[in-house]
TrEMBL record:
Keywords: ATP-binding, Coiled coil, Cytoplasm, Hypersensitive response, Leucine-rich repeat, Nucleotide-binding, Plant defense, Repeat. The gene is LOC140038376. Its main location: cytoplasm. It holds the Pfam family LRR_14. Residues 328-355 form a coiled coil. Confers resistance to late blight (Phytophthora infestans) races carrying the avirulence gene Avr1. Resistance proteins guard the plant against pathogens that contain an appropriate avirulence protein via an indirect interaction with this avirulence protein. That triggers a defense system including the hypersensitive response, which restricts the pathogen growth. It is found in: Cytoplasm. Residues 851-1029 form the Disease resistance R13L4/SHOC-2-like LRR domain. The keyword Repeat applies. This is Late blight resistance protein homolog R1B-16.
Length: 1037
């Protein structure tokens, strides 16, 4: 009997070898070869697993030139096994010596690897033929050579192969950058089909079918064999084939022929699903729930795929499909819960899933999808009736449990919406004082002295000093004051800071600590690619033998210290750690923790002083207002955040005694209990905002907590959303900047960094204001915020959802299968800021589903595409588009069909070529490409009268051109640009470019590999309004 023992042992040793060499200096050159061998052996193992079962009971005939040739399969398999058995000792020997021999390059380049590659190549054609023969032979038989458990194992191996294929591990044959989006889509479709079969088999057994009918099992085996054959073939194809349209078309046709449920087995499939017997003896309750959940997930995925290409369905059918999709998402939200009370619902949920599976996999539904002529046929109407009946049953089930204890813990999500700013409404910006750029500290001197004393004196052992107090009491402000005190700087060799926040992420905190000294270097970028264990070790080495102070700001859970304490050495040098937390319980649980420093509220005098400083800055308060100001300060009950927020309101209203007294009276109605006072302050501040600023403030909820948001980017988003009023003779960016300064003046938004030529570079909001904005945005039907897979997977998409902000991993976003066709804004942020690891090759679903998008931000996903898909033209309403695609080089001419596009940002490591059709995009205002852009010109561009322009273009970076007459000609096409970055290609020995016609230009950056002084002749003319001119040096490539 043939076994896969040799293959398994070789695989084990290859993986050990790879583990030993990945850390060597030759890893870049030799690891791909080992990975390639591992993946090819895995494909071979999949083949052997099935062929071994076949060889026990079946003859096999290969078709060649119309002649059937009998193959003695056991002999072939023994030959395969013997072939790799002779390499077993060599590979094992290499895995052993790789632990000690540092010359890994010579190890991997020994003859064994070329020989393995050669043998696998020799087997390729015969294995493909055998796969085809086994599938063809089985399709003519009524039984399978495998049990249902063995078939499930076989499907698992194929799914692993597909994952390896799409993840680009077949180095040298299929690289990460070369797998086309089309191939990726077909592989994903195959994965979905196999996953359905894998989930269906245990579900059928759970529903009472102990033995899957032989004909159905045989059909499943054929599906698996065809999928295995196709994936095996793909693993050998070269780069050129992968990008060939005919090749992709062939892959598509082959994939389409692989049908999990076809007309021949559909009746048997329905009989299995309609079984009402329960075989509970086979499973425990938790396993039952997981089986139901797996099938439900698979059905959601299948239905999502059908909805993505539902253009051929009649409207009524599409509506019922969407209702079913929402119903299945509701069932998922129930199945995710673990309460005992919900176990009794498993039987009902199983029956509902059976109904759903019958219609979703109906060959009739698929025929209606594929053939437009059948869209209103009797067949389509039958599908409609089946969908409608299933939806009625799910709704009945839902109505039964709504209001019961079962549903209490099920997450409830709502669409949130606010109307856009009216274009005709009049707006008058508030005339309050400009915000004070630095933090005002009042009443903290005595508190700071107490904390500093604890830090610099006392025990030589490591000690944690917790600063505890309610939200908004000034814990972070006190910690900053202490951290920057001169005595602290003198006494501690190392000072580090991190903000933990409620959404704690271990890696993010470690990166903050290691990079918090403020000296950005290439090392900081390299740290992002390391895992948590390596970062823990680096932190330990950094702190070892030093007296250090580390601040953990905004700690919500003791888990952060339990995870990280191993990295804090106690060298008896008097090192200290500060925790700021709202929770006294966290402080009590801390190991090495001293007595908590409980931050007191401000006294009435201190409150009064802080209020006046925030309202009037260095100016004096009018005597007539002092009494009322003291009354208002008392109402804030010593809470700094409440004082700051109230001051923000006072700074914007008229400084009149009657107005202030009226405000003081209203303040008494909103401030209730001490626990609610901060929330009430925020509500008060929000209600005092002009209508146009409310939407702008709530939009901050779309970003990550504690995120430092780029002001320019925020302003562009506000404009794209329609929040900013269009005022004749005034740029929208100027109006939006006034909005931002107004919010800052009200102390609702804080300045993080300022620009060198004035204005705000980055800003943020306090975490309490952030939470308030999230809640208010939800209540006002303005914005839905989803964080993590639990929220994503159980989110029931409501109709007319306006805006959706997602903060999760890219994998979770794709896996969640969201379907919101009416969505206007989609913002995606990776869970770990600055660390983009998820790579996506197929974004066709975006163009199929989200046709009404105005704002699309996918910076949290790295699109593995060289060219933006031409299907982007389907997003006709798009105003804002921001993508991360590190290998993208080309933008298709069809982008010009996005006639409303205002902002286009592309984060690519390569220079991007823009089509000449871009000159037709008259509304375009901002174009940013990280590594630069080249803009193509049409043939008649030399004639000045024929020049078409981008009259509204406001910012452009970085434009690659020669500073000569041709470059000058191109610049004349952007007459109203305000901010411009140019990279001089330096192909001419002279520089002669007149930019004086760019009368609106305020900021100009000129880069070049060739220093201007080294040119024979340099003649540059600049406009009179230029405020900033920089010539940063570039090193040669």
């Amino acid at each position: 009997m043939v076994s896969t023992c040799s293959i398994d042992r070789v695989l084990l040793d290859l993986e050990l070898l790879l583990l030993n060499i990945v850390r060597s200096r030759y890893a870049t050159y030799i690891a791909p070869r080992v990975r390639d061998a591992i993946k090819r052996m895995k494909f071979l193992r999949t083949f052997l697993m099935h062929a071994r079962k076949w060889s026990q009971s079946n003859d096999l005939y290969l078709q060649s030139d119309d002649v059937a040739k009998k193959v003695i399969l056991p002999s072939f398999l023994s030959c395969v096994e013997d072939t790799f058995h002779k390499y077993e000792e060599d590979i094992h020997y290499l895995s052993l010596i790789s632990k000690t021999d540092k010359d890994h390059y010579s190890i991997v380049n020994r003859g064994v690897f070329p020989e393995i590659e050669k043998q696998i190549e020799l087997l390729k054609q015969e294995i493909i033929q055998i796969y085809f023969a086994m599938a063809s032979s089985r399709s003519l038989q009524s039984n399978s050579c495998m049990t249902d458990d063995e078939l499930t194992e076989f499907i698992d191996l194929i799914l692993q192969n597909l994952a390896d294929l799409i993840n680009g591990y077949m180095d040298g044959k299929i690289s990460e950058s070369s797998i086309s989006a089309a191939l990726s889509a077909q592989v994903q479709a195959l994965e979905a089909k196999l996953t359905f079969l894998k989930s269906f088999i245990p579900f059928a057994k759970l529903r009472g079918t102990v033995d899957i009918p032989a004909l159905l099992l045989a059909h499943f085996e054929v599906v698996a064999l065809n999928a295995a054959r196709l994936s095996y073939m793909c693993s050998f194809w070269e780069d050129e084939q992968l990008h060939n349209p005919e090749f992709c078309s062939m892959i598509y046709e082959q994939q389409q022929k692989i049908t999990p449920i076809d007309f021949q087995v559909y009746e048997i499939y329905m009989d299995v699903l309609r079984a009402t017997r329960s075989s509970k003896s086979l499973h425990n309750k938790m396993m039952d729930k997981q089986i139901l959940n797996n099938l439900n997930d698979s059905l959601i995925s299948c239905l999502w795929e059908q909805l993505c290409c539902s253009s051929s369905f009649m409207d009524s059918l599409k509506d019922e499909m969407r209702i079913l999709y929402a119903g299945l998402k509701f069932l998922r939200s129930i199945l995710r819960k673990q309460q005992e009370k919900m176990d009794e619902q498993n039987e009902k949920i199983g029956a509902l899933l059976s109904e759903a599976a019958i219609i979703i996999c109906s060959p009739s539904l698929n025929r209606v999808k594929e053939e437009v002529s059948l869209s209103e046929s009797t067949e389509a109407l039958d599908c409609y009736d089946m969908l409608a009946n299933t939806n009625i049953h799910i709704k009945y089930f839902k109505d039964q449990i709504i209001g019961s204890s079962i549903i209490e813990s099920i997450p409830s999500f709502h669409s949130l919406r606010v109307p856009e700013v009216s274009k005709t409404s009049s707006r008058v910006l508030s005339k309050g004082k400009m915000p004070i750029p630095h933090e005002v500290m009042v009443g903290l001197d005595d508190e700071a002295e107490k904390v500093i004393e604890r830090l610099v004196s006392g025990s030589k052992q490591v000690e944690i000093v917790p600063i505890v107090g309610m939200a908004g009491l000034g814990k972070t402000t006190l910690a900053k004051k202490v951290y920057n005190d001169s005595s602290i700087i003198y006494n501690f060799q190392i000072r580090l800071w991190c903000t933990v926040s409620q959404a704690y992420n271990m890696k993010n905190v470690l990166l903050q600590i290691l990079c918090s000294e403020g000296k950005h270097s290439r090392m900081d970028d390299e740290l992002k690619n390391l895992d948590e264990h390596v970062l823990l070790e680096k932190l330990y080495k950094k702190l070892k033998e030093n007296r250090y102070l580390v601040v953990f700001d905004d700690v919500w859970d003791i888990k952060v210290w339990n995870d990280l304490r191993i990295s804090f050495p106690d060298d008896k040098k008097g090192s200290r750690i500060i925790f700021t937390s709202r929770s006294s319980n966290v402080a009590l649980q801390v190991e090495y923790g001293g007595k908590s420093h409980n931050l007191r509220p401000l006294s009435e005098k201190e409150s009064f002083e802080l209020l006046l400083k925030k309202v009037f800055g260095k100016g004096d308060c009018p005597q007539a207002l002092c009494g009322t100001a003291m009354k208002i300060a008392k109402k804030c009950r010593g809470l700094p955040l409440a004082l700051v927020v109230v001051a923000g309101v006072l700074a914007t209203i008229e400084h009149d005694i009657l107005v202030w007294e009226e405000f003081a009276e209203s303040l008494t109605l909103t401030m209730v209990s001490s626990t609610d006072q901060c929330k009430k302050s925020l509500e008060l501040s929000y209600e005092h905002l002009p209508y146009h600023l409310k939407a702008c403030l709530l939009y901050f909820a779309a970003f990550r907590e504690d995120e430092k948001i780029g002001a320019k980017n925020l302003i562009r988003l506000w404009i794209a959303e329609g929040f900013v009023e269009k005022i004749e003779g005034k740029r929208s960016e100027v109006v939006a900047e006034e909005y931002l300064m107004d919010l800052i003046g009200r102390n609702l938004v804080m300045v993080s960094k300022s620009r060198s030529i004035g204005g705000v570079k980055t800003c943020y909001i306090h975490d309490l204001i952030f939470e308030f904005c999230k809640g208010e945005a939800k209540e006002k039907k303005f914005l839905q915020v989803l964080r993590g897979y639990d929220e994503l997977s159980t989110f029931i998409e409501p109709p007319n959802l306006p805006r959706l902000s997602i903060c999760s991993s890219g994998e979770d976003f794709i896996k969640s299968k969201l379907f919101c066709p009416c969505l206007g804004t989609l913002l995606f942020f990776d869970a770990i800021p600055g660390y983009i690891k998820f790579e996506l090759r197929n974004i066709s679903f975006l163009f199929c589903i989200y046709k009404q998008l105005k704002v699309l931000n996918l910076e949290g996903i790295n699109l593995m595409l060289k060219e933006l898909p031409a299907e982007v033209e389907s997003l006709l309403c798009l105003r804002y588009l921001s993508l991360r695609a590190e290998r993208m080089e080309f933008i298709p001419p069809s982008i010009a069909k996005l006639s409303h596009l205002e902002t286009f940002c592309l984060y690519s490591h390569r220079m991007v070529s823009l089509p000449d059709s871009i000159w037709n995009m008259k509304k375009l205002r901002h174009v940013h490409a990280r590594s630069g852009v080249v803009i193509r010109l049409s043939s008649n561009d030399n004639v000045v009268e024929n020049l078409s322009t981008l009259p509204n273009l406001d910012t452009l970076s970085t434009l690659h051109l020669d500073l000569d007459k041709e470059g000058e000609n191109l610049l004349r096409r952007i007459p109203n640009v305000h901010r411009l970055k140019i990279f001089d290609l330096g192909r001419q020995n002279t520089v002669c470019c007149n930019m004086s016609r760019l009368e609106c230009l305020e900021s100009l950056t000129l880069r070049s590999y060739v220093f201007p002084g080294s040119r024979e002749h340099v003649e540059l003319s600049f406009p009179m309004n230029l405020k900033k001119l920089s010539f940063p040096c570039e090193s040669s490539p």
